[in-house]
Amino acid sequence: MPTVKTPRLTGLKKVEGKPVELLVHGQNMGDDALLIVRLTDEGFELSDVVNMLSTSEMYLHGDMVKRITGMSVRTVRRLLKEGKSVRLDPQHSVVAYQYALVLEKAIRAFGGQSRAEDWMQKPTTYLNGHVPLELTRNPLGFQMVEQYLGQLIYCVYP
């Protein structure tokens, strides 16, 4: 039986930078928590989201592209090729921000991207055997993952 090949967002040049910075197009977030609310309400530019996706091998798989952008790999490729300015809707902009923030915090908590991505894709005891990457799709799951990563970063354990 032939295996189904998962579509990937290929041919992208990996953009250097932190995922959140790429997503917000380098705007200084500072202490302005409402800035992210305004930016997600406006919707992130698809090109900025694709730059964020390019920082992570695990985010380039078709199911992740669709989960984060709400669009298939094929649609994203077509829109990028057309060069039009396309914005994600507010809901998918929030999802993109959540994935960018979790990746950034995991890199910080685990001391490197490969270790962070490995952790994000495996069940973890603290999250009752759930996979952090899968939990991030849900707002409450995202909060749990973010809280756990914060505890790791600041060495504060319950």
Overview in brief:
The protein has 158 residues and is mainly alpha-helical. Helices cover 57% and strands 0% of the residues.
What can you tell me about this protein's structure?
The chain has nine helices and no strands. It is mainly alpha-helical and 158 residues long. The chain has one domain (19-154). Helix 2 (33-42) crosses helix 6 (90-110) and helix 6 packs across helix 7 (113-120). It starts with 18 loop residues before the first helix and ends with a helix.
Low-confidence stretches: none
The figure for the number of domains is 1
Mean pLDDT: 91
Helix content: 55-70%
Task: Kindly estimate the percentage of residues that lie in beta strands according to DSSP.
Answer: under 5%
Note the main attributes of this structure.
9 helices, mainly alpha, 158 residues, globular
Secondary structure blueprint with pairings:
Elements: H1 19-23, H2 33-42, H3 46-53, H4 62-69, H5 73-82, H6 90-110, H7 113-120, H8 132-135, H9 139-154
